[in-house]
């Protein structure tokens, strides 16, 4: 009985702490190791990359994001794909579940350029009041060719910035 009461109190505390994270006017910075994203497409196979993100909450539960990323797929080039993009996240529940959508411009090592809209579903696991671990599943649709469309998993770290 005591364990159940403690679990209930802990759950309420996490919910209360998490609700403050997604409020209007807050900032966000993050990075994802997209090599753990283990994404696969027909053109490149398995890839390893790094993504940096910055965001802002113009309204409660809604974040706008900008990102830049570099991906290496085992060829001789240091970065085989470089992209820059913008998007947003909507936090469905106050405990961290989110839906994301965006678009990015991708430059692939002198072979092609592409515009790729994408979707993602993720979860922000709070380690403390502002730092999160953020696993996500995503899909990027290529306008160039369906061979370049990508599905994957990524693991990121986020920091929610406060003004207090």
Automatic annotation (TrEMBL):
- Name of the protein: Outer membrane protein beta-barrel domain-containing protein
- Keyword Signal assigned to the entry: answer is yes
Recorded hits in InterPro entries, A to Z, give: OMP/PagP_B-barrel (IPR011250)
- Species of origin reads Prevotella histicola F0411
Its domain of life reads Bacteria
What start and end residues bound the annotated signal peptide?
A: 1-20
The UniProt keyword set, sorted, is:
Signal
